[in-house]
Each structure stands twice: as C-alpha cells, then as structure tokens.
Write a sequence for this structure.
C-alpha cells in the first residue's frame, strides 16, 4: 500500500457487430484477393454494423453496460466518460454525451477525443489523470469506431483494412501500485496529408461537390503511413521500456493497435518479445481504429494476471502515436 493513487483498469467491456465482411466478400466488390489481404495485412474478416440509424453509440452502449455488469456497478456511479473516436454519431453533441444518456449515467460528464488510431491511448492517459487528481473515482474510457461509415467500398487500398467495433475499460483509484504507470504520447501534424478525411469539417464543409468527389471518406496513402507506423510504434515502445528500466523479459503482453500484422511484428521484434506475448485479433476484426486496443484487452481478459506488465502501443492518423505501460490490477 502507498499514498500514491494510480489509475487501475478494473473491468473491460466490448462489442462487435454480428455481420462479417470476409476477404471473399471483398473479392466480389473490388480487385483484390484473400491471399493478398492476408499476407499484406493479416486480416481475414472484419465486423460491420448494419442497419438504418445505427451509429457508433449503438456499439458503445452494450460495451459500457457489459462493463458495469462485470464490475457490479450502477451507471449512476460513473463520474466521467471519454470516447476516443473518429466516427462520432454526429459532429456535436459528443458521442460521450449521447452514451451517458442512453446508459443512464446521469451523474457523469464526458467528451469525445479525436486522435484517430491513438484515440484510446490518448483517452486512457487523460482518464488516468482524472483519477490521479483524486477528484474522480470511476472513469470509463472507450475506443469505438464505425469505420464502415467513412470507407469507400470501391477503394481497395482502404476498404480491406477497416472494420467496426467498440471496447472500454473502467478506471478506478488504486493504492497497490497497479494501473497506468507511464505513457509516451506523440503527435506530428505534418502527417495529416497522408491519412485524413478531406471534407466535412470547417475547412471544406459538406457540399454536393464534396460528396460527388468522395471527400467524406477516409483517404490514406498506405505505404507512406506504413513506413511511419513501423518506426513510430517500435521507437516509442522501446523508449517506454528503456525509461522504465524494463526489457522484453519483464513484459507479459504487448497490446498493439491492430492496423497491419507487419507493423505489429516489427514492434514486437524491436522490444524483444516472442509472438506468444503479442495480442493479435486483427484476423477477425480488422482495423477498428479507436477500438483495437480495448478489444484486445476484452478478448484476452481471462488470461491476464494481477501484476502483469502490459505495453499498449498505437500509431495512426495525425500522425498520432504512443505507448502506455500498465500493471494489471486483477
Ligand atoms: O490504422 C492506423 C494507420 N494505418 C495504417 O497503419 C495502415 C498502414 N498501411 C498498410 O497497412 C499498408 O500500406 C496497406 C495494407 C494499406 C497496403 O499494403 P502495401 O504493402 O503498402 O501495398 P502498396 O500500397 O505498396 O501496394 C502494393 C501493390 C500495388 O501494386 P503495384 O503497383 O505493385 O503493381 C497496389 O496497387 O499492391 C496493390 N494493391 C492491392 N492488390 C490487391 C493495393 N491494394 C491492393 C488490394 N488487393 N487490396
């Protein structure tokens, strides 16, 4: 026991839509093939949220309710909610605002945080600060995206990667030294031209022309982003280990953003980690942007042990990237 308050993850929730979009389905939509997608990305299928009127909040709500049930808390106990997303239900109000209403978290305030694929890590660090301040006892941190709402399914360079999903964690104060220990977060806006959505913001508000020019879809220069991602995610993960005087041997799990298996392999290699210590579910969900890291925690929760050191790492649009060291609390 110590006087220092750390922000511990005390529960994990998740949700993926039922509908699957397989590589074989994509073969019928664009000029691609299963072998190419699997060998270049590691992806076999992804989940798609279908149905009129369904939005990101419709995936976050079941994930948050599951989280509350697992931890045995009433949504009224939630103090704050942060949602890392690039596909909010609408530009405003925030998705956090809508989700708090839908789950009955009437005592919570919250906001959306936009940091693309690093959205969950940015949100986790922000949420941890709220707990460490001593002012808040229960903070829900979410990563969620309905990427299918901003993907051009005639563009084979982007449509093969992305999928939909939502994951969340509950942060609570801990005095045993478990929880979020350290984070290195980075951003470099010069990367914006290589991965962005051209229209729909104040720079290019929506017009008939922007819609006709497909400017409301995600635009990505894959190879350029790939090169930066390999270096950025591996560098920051190695730096995090070094400044905490740890080596790969001290790490139980790498929890990487699932953008491309080759980026993940490069990061694990740089950290000196064998593949059995790397969480990988990209083959089933694809790249769900903000949701990849919490969905890994959701899938692996039963295998995690109290005291395990986890490194969470991400790279994405912005550019934004980072790594976070977590000591598992249960
Ligand atoms: O989520 C955070 C940010 N995003 C990322 O981290 C994603 C990073 N980028 C990537 O994962 C990869 O760049 C992609 C998976 C998007 C593309 O893989 P790549 O190995 O970088 O492919 P490429 O763009 O260099 O294209 C190689 C070849 C090209 O053909 P030529 O010019 O060599 O004849 C492409 O036209 O592969 C072709 N190609 C495809 N072929 C079949 C591109 N997309 C496809 C496709 N199916 N879907």
């Amino acid at each position: 026991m110590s006087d220092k308050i750390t922000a511990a993850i005390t529960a994990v929730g998740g949700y993926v839509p039922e509908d699957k979009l397989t590589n074989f389905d994509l073969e019928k939509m664009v000029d691609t093939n299963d072998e190419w997608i699997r060998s270049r990305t590691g992806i076999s299928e992804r989940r798609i949220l279908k149905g009129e009127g369904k939005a990101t909040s419709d995936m976050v709500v079941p994930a948050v309710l599951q989280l509350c049930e697992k931890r045995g808390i009433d949504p009224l106990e939630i103090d704050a909610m942060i949602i890392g997303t690039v596909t909010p239900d609408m530009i405003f109000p925030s998705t956090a605002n809508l989700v708090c209403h839908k789950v009955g978290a009437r005592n919570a305030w919250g906001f959306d945080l936009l940091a693309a694929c690093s959205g969950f890590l940015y949100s986790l660090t922000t949420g941890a600060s709220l707990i460490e301040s001593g002012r808040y006892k229960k903070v829900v941190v979410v990563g969620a995206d309905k990427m299918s709402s901003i993907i051009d399914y005639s563009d084979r360079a982007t449509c093969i990667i992305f999928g939909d999903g939502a994951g969340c964690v509950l942060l609570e104060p801990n005095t045993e030294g478990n929880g979020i220990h350290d984070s290195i977060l980075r951003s470099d806006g010069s990367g914006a031209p290589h991965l962005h959505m051209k229209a729909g913001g104040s720079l290019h508000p929506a017009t008939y022309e922007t819609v006709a020019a497909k400017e409301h879809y995600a635009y990505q220069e894959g190879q350029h982003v790939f090169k930066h991602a390999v270096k950025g995610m591996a560098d920051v993960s190695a730096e995090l280990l070094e400044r905490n005087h740890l080596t790969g041997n001290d790490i139980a799990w790498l929890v990487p953003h699932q953008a491309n298996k080759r980026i993940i392999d490069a990061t694990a290699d740089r950290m000196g980690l064998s593949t059995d210590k790397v969480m990988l579910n990209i083959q089933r969900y694809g790249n769900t942007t903000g949701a990849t890291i919490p969905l890994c925690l959701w899938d692996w929760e039963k295998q995690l042990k109290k005291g395990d050191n986890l490194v969470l790492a991400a790279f994405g649009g912005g550019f934004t990237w980072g790594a976070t060291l977590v000591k598992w609390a249960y």
